[in-house]
TrEMBL record:
The lineage of its organism: Eukaryota, Viridiplantae, Streptophyta, Embryophyta, Tracheophyta. InterPro entries: G_GB1_RHD3_dom (IPR030386), Guanylate-bd/ATL_C (IPR003191), Guanylate-bd_C_sf (IPR036543), Guanylate-bd_N (IPR015894), P-loop_NTPase (IPR027417). The keyword Iron does not apply. The chain crosses the membrane at residues 6-30, 42-61. Residues 530-850 form a coiled coil. GO terms for molecular function: GTP binding; GTPase activity. The keyword Zinc-finger does not apply. Residues 851-907 are annotated as: Disordered. Belongs to the TRAFAC class dynamin-like GTPase superfamily. GB1/RHD3 GTPase family. This is GB1/RHD3-type G domain-containing protein.
């Protein structure tokens, strides 16, 4: 975002331009400084004022002092705007309300403000002060009508208006003369706070200039301004709709040109592409052009649809022209390429040394080159005709020439073959004769060779037999001597190794036994801790769930209390309304006799209005107190009870009052003379109702502001949303009160009619009515005092209960937090214990594997040493091994033939597992839990809530035994 400020001064007006972004001139803020307009500059200033109002987003009118008739007279240009600006070209002069939809936010800035903003002994806002100043003046005459016309024009032209007051910056006169040299910190705090509020409002409420739903950019605003200036300079009245239509047409034309440029830049004409890809590129470029047109075009009327149709037709025509020209160029290029290919093929076929394989290779190369370079829809058609012409023309001629040459060569070869056959027959005869002689010589030679081979074989066999016998004897002698020596050495080595391994195995066995015993003790301790922590965790979880359930019950009770409070509030509103109706009826009866009573009725009506405004202020004050919903809900409960009791008593009073009213309606014939006074009173009440309607509108505007503030505060705090909803509920209640006032108005009209009908019958009982009214007023005052005392007492009691409830809630929250921390700590301990169990299990598996490997190694060494020893040493060694094996941790089962069978640890553990799986039903609950956690099923055990032994046995059978 780019923030650029520019200030322009013309004829007493300052134009501040704030550019929010590159594409939008965001904020136009025009400040008027109350110039004195000469009589000869009246039209010129009105035109400048009209342009300022139409082109700005915010219009700030600043003056010194308060708002009086002179200040309103300075804004008399507002009444002349309808003469110099029109909304539509037809239909005559536009009204101020029609121009109001195009007007900016109006801010009236009062500098050096010295007044105290109070009305009827209550403080009012600057906005209320502005609305009071713009209220119509009572009376008749030309001056009063002119003043009211100015006020009505300001209200109609500026429906969105605001007022700000700034006190004097400094108190010292010398400082006032050099304000530009003073620092902001030297100004008065009231001035700084007012200036901060004013600048915050200006920066927050100033938005990009809009006309309808279209946000203006720089060119749009410049075109609209130029259209207004042309109309003013030509002496015509500027028309908003006509100017906007011309601007809309110009912007659509510019969007049309930019869309065409976008299409031309996005549509790639350099590539030689086929029809499908060309159409895809056209559609892609067309989509981009249409998106560019939619991004730049303004409005949604005939101009936009017209230029959109022109854009579609222009892009379609450009694509068709380009496609036609491209395909013509492609056809020309294909024909040129085919001609060159045809000339090359013809030259290759007409070459004297031409071969069919060479022509085929040349044709393949030409086809690949043609396929990569040629394009267009007629590409393959021209290629097919070219191939047909080639096959029917030069290729066929070449084939015929080669065929004739092959036939001639075949005839010559046939003659050569016949002559070679004759020579071959002669040579065969000579070969047969020579073959006979050669076979005879070969037979004799083979016989001699066979005899020689027999003699040499016999001799060599005899020599080899003798050599093998001697070598076998020598080898046997050497092997026997070496084996004897090695056997002796190995027997000694194995004997020493066996003794050393037996000693080492005993030491390792004792160490392993001690380690296993310590690990078993640690495992049992950790299992006990684990079970204890689990029981603590389960109890903590149960307690936390109990507190959670209690908290949910308390929350539900609070919600129901809120609902009951809302219903009670509605009932109290209805009760107050009925009570006000009864009081107004009594006051009307009293005021019908005397003018003093009429004045009392008007005073009481004004008091009720003041009471309504005080109720509104009280409601606004209670918005800050509504954060503690529980206290309000409990207080409202007790208040509902008391109000229901009061409502019953008031209902009984209302019934008695209705009876009295029926009697009195027949006795009021003498009030006919005062009917005109009642009509005047009715007019005054009508005016006041209108004022209340305006206040209701102001309240709705405040509600909108409150909604915006609530939406902004929702990002930081979730509680602000609830406050906003409650504020909306209060606003709805205020709207209901306004509706109730309207109903009061209708009831008063009906009552006046009834009074007019019953005026003739009420002469004789006026004195009785006055006495009864005095007595009823005294009774009502006493009842109100008693109700107030009861409410104060109940409020104190409820505050005490609320304090105790809050203490209990805080204690419960602390307990829940402590339990959650304890659960986290126990969960961490459980994780540590599980890690220790896993490490212990890994150590046990490592020790088991180590024992198994050592046992297998010792068994292999023992068997090898036994087989290598002599028979006597073997027997002695077996006796020693049997005597020593009784102390080893491995078990040997002796067979009948004196051997031993080794039983490993696997069979032993298997037997143990069998006994364990058979006797798991005899385990205790603690033992079953330990077994489940040992096998890694602790999570499934924790999922069981309050399990008994049957549930734990079923879980053990499911996961461990596998049943």
């Amino acid at each position: 975002m780019i923030q650029v400020f520019s200030i322009i001064y013309f004829s007493g007006y300052f134009l501040f331009c704030v550019f929010c972004s590159i594409t939008h001139i965001g904020n136009f803020c025009i400040t008027a400084s109350c110039p004195l307009i000469p009589f000869w500059q009246g039209t010129y200033s009105i035109q400048i004022f009209s342009l300022a109002v139409l082109l700005s987003s915010m219009f700030i009118y600043n003056q010194m002092g308060g708002i009086d008739e002179a200040a309103l007279d300075r804004l008399s240009l507002v009444t002349e705007m309808t003469k110099h600006i029109r909304v539509r070209a037809s239909g005559g002069r536009s009204t101020a309300s029609e121009l109001g939809q195009f007007s900016p936010v109006f801010v009236w800035l009062l500098r050096d403000f010295y007044l105290d903003l109070t009305e009827d002994n209550r403080k009012i806002t600057p906005r209320d002060y502005l609305e009071l100043a713009l209220r119509p003046v009572q009376g008749g005459g030309r001056d009063v009508s002119a003043k009211n016309a100015i006020r009505e024009s300001i209200r109609a032209l500026f429906p969105d208006r605001e007022c700000f007051t700034l006190v004097r910056p400094v108190n010292n006169e010398k400082d006032l003369q050099r304000l530009d040299q003073l620092l902001l910190s030297n100004f008065r705090p009231e001035f700084r706070s007012g200036l901060d509020a004013f600048t915050k409002f200006v920066l927050d409420r100033t938005r990009p200039k809009q006309l309808g739903a279209s946000t203006m950019t720089g060119p749009i605003l410049a075109g609209l301004t130029q259209s207004f200036l042309d109309a003013i300079n030509s002496g015509a009245v500027p028309t908003i709709s006509s100017s906007w239509q011309s601007v809309e047409e110009a912007e659509c034309r510019r969007a049309y040109d930019s869309a065409v440029d976008t299409y031309n830049s996005c549509f790639d004409r350099k590539k030689q592409i086929e029809e499908d890809s060309l159409r895809e590129a056209h559609e892609d470029a067309m989509r981009k052009a249409i998106s560019a047109f939619n991004a730049s075009a303004v409005g949604a009327g005939l101009a936009r649809s017209k230029f959109e149709k022109l854009l579609h037709s222009a892009l379609r025509k450009a694509f068709e022209d380009y496609k036609r020209n491209t395909f013509l160029e492609a056809d020309l290029q294909c024909s040129n390429r085919v001609q060159s290919m045809e000339s090359k093929v013809r030259a290759a076929c007409n070459h004297p040394d031409a071969k069919l394989d060479d022509v085929v290779r040349l044709l393949d190369g030409l086809l690949t080159e043609y396929e990569s370079t040629a394009y267009g829809p007629g590409k393959w058609k021209r290629l097919a005709t070219f191939l047909q012409q080639c096959l029917a023309g030069p290729v066929l001629d070449l084939f015929r020439r080669q065929l004739e040459h092959i036939v001639a060569e075949r005839n010559a070869l046939r003659l050569k073959c016949n002559s070679s056959d004759d020579k071959l027959a002669l040579l065969r005869k000579q070969l047969e004769a020579s073959e006979g002689h050669r076979a005879e010589y070969l037979r004799r030679y083979e016989e001699i060779i066979n005899d020689k081979q027999k003699i040499s074989k016999d001799y060599s066999v005899r020599i080899t037999e003798l050599q093998t016998k001697s070598s076998k004897l020598e080898e046997r002698c050497m092997s026997l001597s070496s084996s004897l020596e090695t056997a002796k050495r190995e027997s000694n080595d194995w004997r020493s190794k066996y003794d050393h391994s037996i000693l080492q195995q005993k030491a390792d066995g004792s160490k392993l036994k001690s380690q296993i015993a310590s690990l078993e003790s640690r495992v049992s301790i950790s299992e006990g801790r684990l079970s204890a922590t689990r029981e603590q965790a389960e109890s903590a979880q149960e307690e936390a769930s109990e507190w959670k359930r209690k908290y949910e019950v308390a929350v539900s009770e609070a919600k129901t209390a809120l609902q009951r409070a809302a219903v009670a509030q509605e009932r109290t509103n209805k009760k107050v309304q009925e009570r006000e109706d009864a009081l107004r009826a009594e006051l009307a009866n009293q005021l019908s006799e005397k003018e003093e009573e009429i004045s009392r009725l008007s005073a009481k009506v004004s008091q009720t209005e003041i009471h309504a405004t005080s109720l509104i202020s009280r409601l606004e004050a209670t918005e800050a107190k509504l954060k503690s919903h529980e206290s309000d809900s409990l207080a409202l409960k007790e208040e509902i009870r008391s109000l229901t009791d009061n409502l019953e008593s008031i209902r009984s009073e209302v019934l008695s009052r209705e009876k009295e009213v029926r009697i009195l309606e027949q006795e009021k014939n003498h009030l006919q003379e005062k009917y005109l006074a009642e009509c005047k009173k009715f007019d005054e009440t009508d005016i006041r109702c209108k004022e209340t309607e305006r206040e209701a509108r102001r309240a709705t505007e405040l509600a909108d502001v409150a909604r915006a503030e609530a939406a902004a505060a929702q990002k930081d705090k979730g509680e602000a949303q609830r406050l906003a909803m409650e504020r909306l509920a209060l606003i709805e209640r205020m709207e209901r009160q306004v509706e109730a006032l309207e109903r009061d108005k209708a009831k008063m009209v009906e009552e006046i009619e009834r009074l007019h009908q019953s005026e003739k019958d009420a002469t004789s009982k006026v004195i009785l009515l006055e006495n009864s009214v005095d007595e009823r007023e005294k009774e009502i005052d006493e009842m109100l005092k008693r109700n107030n005392q009861q409410r104060s007492n109940t409020v104190q009691v409820l505050e005490g209960l609320l304090a105790t409830e809050r203490e209990a809630c805080t204690e419960a929250n602390k307990r829940a937090e402590a339990l959650s921390l304890q659960l986290q700590a126990t969960q961490g301990k459980l994780d540590m214990l599980q890690q220790e169990l896993a490490s212990v299990q890994r150590n046990e598996t490592a020790l088991d594997s180590k024992l198994k490997t050592s046992a297998r190694r010792l068994r292999g060494e023992a068997t090898e040493s036994v087989h290598d020893m002599d028979i006597d040493d073997d027997n002695n060694g077996r006796r020693r091994k049997r005597s020593k094996s009784t102390t080893s941790p491995f078990k040997n089962n002796h067979t009948e033939d004196g051997g031993s069978v080794f039983i490993g640890e696997d069979t032993y553990t298997g037997s143990l597992q069998g006994t364990e799986t058979e006797d798991y039903t005899k385990f205790t609950v603690q033992k079953l839990k330990q077994e489940l956690t040992k096998h890694g099923f602790g999570a499934q055990l924790l999922q069981l809530k309050n399990p008994n032994k049957k549930d734990i046995v079923a879980l053990y059978e499911k996961h461990v035994v596998g049943k």
